[in-house]
Specification:
Blueprint lengths: L1 H14 L5 H5 L13 H31 L4 H15 L2 H13 L7 H25 L3 H9 L4 H12 L1 H16 L3 H5 L18 H9 L4 H34 L2
C-alpha cells in the first residue's frame, strides 16, 4: 500500500492546488497567459471512452457469452487464445495498427480512431470478465428455465445475463479504467487538440495526452495544469476501480 499512498499524497500536494471552477470549465489559455483549464481534455477523454465503450462492450459481452456457453468447442479454444494474446499486445502497437487502419486511409486523426484503439485495449478485459462471471452462475438456474420449455437463447438473455449483470458491469468498469489512462495509442490516433471540440472525425484532446505534452514543457503554467490533470485522472481511475471492487463483492455475496 505504501507506493499507492505516496503517489496519491504527492499528487494531492502538487495537483489539488490547481483545482477550481475555472480549471474544469475553461480550455487552456494561449502561451504566456495565466489561468485556463482542462475542459477540452475532459470532454475529449469522455468522448473517447464513450466511443470505445460503444465499440467494445457489445462485442465483448457477446464473445464472453459464447465462451461461457461453449466451453469445449475448438472455436472457443482458439477464441480464448486470441483474447489472451490480444490482452498482452502493447498499447503502443495497438495505436500503430489503428493508425494504419483508420488514420492513414482517411489522412486525418480523429476521435473515432482514438476510440477504436481504446476499444481494442478494453475488449479482452470485458470478454474475460463476462466469461468468468457467467461461468460462476449455478447451472440449476438455466436448467430450470430449459425445463419450463424456454428456448436456450431466451434463457441466456433473460436468466443468465441478468443474474451476472453486476459482474459484467464490473468488467466494463475495469475496461474503462484501463483505457482511461492510456497515452501511447492516442499519440497515433486522436493526436490532441488545444481547443474544445465535439467532432468525432477531427483530432481531440485527452487527459493522458495533455499530461504528457504539458508535463514535458518548460512553462510553469502548463506544468501546473499537468499536475492538476494528473490528480483528476488518478482519482477518476481509482473511483472506477473501487466501484468495480464494490460490485464484485456484492455480486459474489449473492452466491
Amino acid at each position: 500500500m505504501l507506493p499507492l499512498v505516496l503517489i496519491l499524497g504527492y499528487l494531492l500536494g502538487r495537483g489539488a492546488a490547481s483545482l477550481n471552477w475555472q480549471f474544469f470549465c475553461r480550455a487552456p489559455q494561449p502561451l504566456g497567459e495565466a489561468g485556463g483549464g482542462i475542459a477540452n481534455a475532459l470532454v475529449g477523454s469522455l468522448l473517447l471512452l464513450g466511443v470505445a465503450f460503444v465499440l467494445a462492450a457489445p462485442l465483448g459481452l457477446l464473445v464472453g457469452i459464447y465462451l461461457s456457453e461453449n466451453k469445449t468447442s475448438r472455436l472457443a479454444d482458439w477464441t480464448r487464445l486470441a483474447v489472451e494474446i490480444l490482452q498482452g499486445v502493447p498499447s503502443i502497437v495497438v495505436g500503430m495498427v489503428i493508425y494504419i487502419w483508420l488514420v492513414l486511409p482517411f489522412k486525418n486523426f480523429s476521435t473515432l480512431a482514438g476510440g477504436a484503439a481504446l476499444a481494442l485495449l478494453m475488449l479482452p478485459i470485458i470478454v474475460r470478465s463476462a466469461e468468468e462471471t457467467l461461468r460462476l452462475i449455478p447451472s440449476e438456474l438455466s436448467e430450470a428455465a430449459l425445463a419450463l420449455g424456454v428456448p436456450h437463447y431466451r434463457t441466456v438473455w433473460r436468466v443468465i445475463v441478468p443474474t451476472g449483470l453486476s459482474g459484467i458491469v464490473t468488467g466494463l468498469l475495469l475496461g474503462l479504467a484501463r483505457a482511461a489512462g492510456e497515452t501511447a495509442p492516442l499519440l497515433f490516433t486522436a493526436f490532441g487538440n488545444p481547443f474544445l471540440s465535439f467532432n468525432l472525425v477531427k483530432p481531440i484532446e485527452s487527459l493522458p495526452h495533455l499530461i504528457f505534452y504539458y508535463a514535458t514543457s518548460p512553462y510553469e503554467e502548463w506544468q501546473r495544469l499537468a499536475w492538476g490533470a494528473s490528480f483528476v485522472l488518478v482519482v477518476g481511475v481509482l473511483g472506477l476501480n473501487l466501484t468495480a471492487k464494490f460490485l464484485t463483492r456484492r455480486w459474489r455475496a449473492q452466491f
